[in-house]
Write the structure tokens for this entry.
Amino acid sequence: MPPAPQPLTPRSVRPSRPKRRFSLEQANSTLPLVKRIVRDIVRTHSEVLKCQQQLEKSNTGRQQQRQQPAPTPQETQGQLERHMTRLEDYVEELTEVGAELKDYQMGLIDFTGRHQGRDVCLCWKLGEERIAYWHELDAGFSGRQPVASLKEKE
């Protein structure tokens, strides 16, 4: 009897990687690269939003009069798709570093860290020089606390 065929999986499905855990020093050492990627993400996300707004205006017929001709909806759709592809590539690059994007507009990033035997998030956002905050996994941005409090609890 021949073996049962293996189920097919879509190409876009990738095997999950084990979550990387960072010390504060390790996460801070990635920031030069992470800053560049996040800047690209924020800028590209802004371009995506502009294209989406242009498409909405063209769909409702509210094109403003301009001195130069506005791109056609097809051209805008093409730009949108290129920006979306680029955005996905940047997010993938960030994921490969081990960081998790939390907010496209703010450039908010979490690194998984370890404290007192549990996972925590080392939190950074675009414009900050170093990782200065952390929060519990379920607390989010509003639960940010200074990293100095991690050292006090050790």
The longest strand covers residues 108-115. The beta strands are 99-103, 108-115, 118-125, 133-136, 145-146. The chain has one domain: 24-63+70-152. Residues 1-16 have pLDDT under 50 and may be disordered.
